[in-house]
Amino acid sequence: MVGFKATDVPPTATVKFLGAGTATCIADLITFPLDTAKVRLQIQGERQGPVQAVASAQYRGVLGTILTMVRTEGPRSLYKGLVAGLQRQMSFASIRIGLYDSVKQFYTKGSEHAGIGSHLLAGSTTGALAVAVAQPTDVVKVRFQAHAQAGGGRRYQSTIEAYKTIAREEGFRGLWKGVTSPNVARNAVVNCAELVTYDLIKDTLLKANLMTDDLPCHFTSAFAAGFCTTIIASPVDVVKTRYMNSALGQYRSAGHCALTMLQKEGPQAFYKGFMPSFLRLGSWNVVMFVTYEQLKRALVAACASQDAPF
């Protein structure tokens, strides 16, 4: 078997917490250009009607978006907002992924046989809790990734300056923009689709003896989770991106943002950036879950070797 072997010792909550944060940072470093391309495609045409948006589209497709950004803004533009993105993953993913098993055990009162309801409750709980803690990092990340749409010079000079400027100009509520509806809904949906799908597919493969608990099983489960998550979460994700990137007063609420999109651009607007979303989520899930599984086993093995008598 490739990688670290599974052990009979279950990983502690601390191991899962640290492992999740580290694994998601590694996944973000690898897939961040796809996330930036997704954001640019999602906000494209938001101030135009559907006909004008198609006619004047600056970005066309995943590869076209990436090539256009490199040509007009330089290669570094693909990693705009990376610092905030890594800050987000260390706080956000550590909670929503690292605490998922613990919360699931809480809902099942320690039972090993968790129903689909317990999986969904655990995913919704950790997803919503993570948003409440890490929302400012997500707002700053999206603003950096989308800044070419704002026109003129650089929107913010640094990550720290972005936090300060948003707090000064929009109040502290500006840093938690979208936390009450679009991002809570999006992350509850994403967390359920991502973690629950991965959990259920992996359990099914293992119980049916189709695969063993190693890299091929983790890869298959993660790829399927990424595909399911993209289909379910894309509409909420587009609204979240538009709402968090909007100027003060542009939209009254997330619902108003969604209604404006529907009226001006049609229902297809809710799946703008679908391909980069899938490429990003599919690859991100594979890298994250495979790394997370291996990190958990490595940390458990390291702890066990320290406790072992000489």
UniProtKB/TrEMBL annotation:
What domain of life? Eukaryota
| Pfam families assigned | Mito_carr
**One term of GO molecular function:** malate transmembrane transporter activity
Q: What are the record's GO terms for cellular component?
A: mitochondrial inner membrane
Q: Give the subcellular location.
A: Mitochondrion inner membrane
Q: What is its membrane topology?
A: Multi-pass membrane protein
* InterPro entries listed in its UniProt record: MCP, MCP_dom_sf, MCP_transmembrane, Mito_Metabolite_Transporter
List the Gene3D superfamilies hit by this protein, alphabetically.
Mitochondrial carrier domain
Provide the residue intervals of the Solcar repeats. Answer: 11-106, 114-204, 213-298
Which BP terms does GO give this entry? cellular response to glucose stimulus; glutamine metabolic process; glycolytic process; long-chain fatty acid transport; macrophage differentiation; mitochondrial fission; mitochondrial transmembrane transport; negative regulation of calcium import into the mitochondrion
Keywords attached to this entry? Membrane, Mitochondrion, Mitochondrion inner membrane, Repeat, Transmembrane, Transmembrane helix, Transport
UniProt cross-references to PANTHER family, sorted A to Z: MITOCHONDRIAL DICARBOXYLATE CARRIER-RELATED
User: Member of which family?
Assistant: Belongs to the mitochondrial carrier (TC 2.A.29) family.
Mind telling me what this protein is named?
Uncoupling protein 2
Species name: Monodon monoceros (Narwhal)
Taxonomic lineage: Eukaryota, Metazoa, Chordata, Craniata, Vertebrata
Instruction: Report the gene name.
Output: UCP2
